[in-house]
User: Fold this.
Amino acid sequence: NGVMFRHSIERMDPVHYLSSSYWEHWLTGVTTLAVEAGAASVDELERRAGGRFPLSRPDRGVLPDDLTPRTEPRHSVGDEVRVREWHPPGHTRAPRYVQGRRGTVVRVDAAANVADIEAHGGGFVTDPLYSVRFTSRELWGDGGADGEVVHVDLYERYLQDP
Assistant:
């Protein structure tokens, strides 16, 4: 599963992640999933590797209380929205730099699988997906340039009224 695989890489110790190659990220992610699924053991890996075999950190993510699939969008193009400000442990597709910030819906896409929920073992749960435009001033205050914008694709469960 691609979502769980990506999440296994995101759980790597930051020092290991930053000091290893792209392919080592893949190896770490795949072997972490194999150990978590019971297909291999840490002892077996370390015996075959001839020493320590680094795995990703345990999944400490928390599933939301509401796992109801949603398909009908609440927001429309032109609506002002605010991104929920919350910092769940584990995987999230809502970048921290947009959390708590106001933006404008510029595109409404079909409902899509919420990767956060699937990555933490909650299964396939759909949510409407939006492209939200943020001004750079909204995101970075005086550090943002006039007229510059950033578009971020966000699931509906990340959004609230402004």
Notes: The helical segments are 2-10, 14-19, 22-36, 42-49, 115-119, 136-140. The chain is about 30% helix and 20% strand.
